[in-house]
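# nightly structure sweep
# worker-07 picked up a monomer target from the shared queue
# config: single-sequence mode, recycle default, output format = structure tokens
# input follows
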Amino acid sequence: MPRTARRVPRRGDTGLWVGYGGARMDSARSAEHHGCPPSFSGVACMNDMSSPELSTLTVSRARLEGRVTLNGAKNSSLRLLAASLLTAGPVTLTNYPSGLLDAQVHVRMLEALGKRAEPVSASEIRITEGRAPASRLVWDGRSIRNTLLILGALTARTGAGAVPLPGGCKLGERKYDLHVMLLERLGARVWEEGDYLCAEAPTGGLVGADILLPMRSTGATENAILCGCLAKGVTRIWNPHIRPEILDLIALLQGMGAQIRVFGQEHIEITGSEGLDGVTHRVIADNMEAVTWLAAAVITGGDVEIAEFPTSDLEVVLTHLRAAGARLYHGEESLIVRGGACYPIEISTGPHPGINSDVQPILAAWAAHARGESRIIDLRFPGRYGYAVEMARMGVDYEIAGDLLKIHGTGGGLHGASVRALDLRAGAALTLCGLTATGETTITDAWQISRGYMDFAAKLESLGAKVRVG
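# output follows
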């Protein structure tokens, strides 16, 4: 019978998970090309024939007012979908953001591997198994970085896996050497074959081991957790990245019967099981969407209540934005943003509880509305400032010095332009700039925004913005 997942404690016997740290993602791995082993038990194939619905998004100056409810977190949902491959039992996700393009791509990948995905409602999905999952995913559509977690889950459960090399946002030096390392530590053989990454577990399956991550990597921590759940013996992950989405994944897996203990940022201990059960689990609120609406309310001088705001997950960001002029008031389960002023900021990104790399494009839009120089440095993905070129088309004055982005704010004074969403957070940041610019701002490749924001245009309209989609 499926279980109902519980949230893993954040303090107490699991330890305090506070601490900073950062490392540059500049390592690489070159793998030899080999043929796929005969142990691949099946091949699944599905073409992604869908085309993005949102091509352009046009906005003009507006003051946002009203109430907005956050959807389930994109960065959590994709991990939970991958975890469904570890069990033959039903997995039901509530508060699920079914409208996200990346989630839809992931669901079609699961279906290609033998899962059945039944949308119960716009915010609930039930995943069951029509047949044992294939070991190889043949996929001709757009890839997402989450394929690395699919590889780990397939190898843990079926003994082998092959997935397309990961896609998603092109954020500088995003390598997958840590994923290869952890699979090899658990006894697997890993290699590249053309555009595929393949893995094969030893006879009898993966074997628990100590995995030391040289940096606090979110994806590598998640993959090690997934693999450890079905590996024989005990797996310990040292120097893990403990953040809300990972705790949400652990809560789901514990609800499925996994034995997982968290010792703060020191290590995670997993005692492997022979199998996992089904589960019903509620996805946490999207903290990136929360920060986006918060910044939009302040930038436009608006008055917005953000329902289900994950305050405890965003304490560092909130501290920075309060100091930078935001007027914030906490309700029982919401945050009320009553305008304020955009003062210059100086931030660096880093592992949780620090500022997530995804937040910095949104904070760059904030900086564009401040008077004076703001400084942003991304320690996780150095040089992730491509959006600044697009903001410059709207009048933003910036310079890049090494890995440091300087924005010389003039209190706004932006003008509408045609700009391109280079990735989903860049698209959201450009939209925020467009909400204060004179004239119209048209964002091309706006489908990128739909990868991580559900009903983005509709929510803007509900808050009083003039929006046109194409």
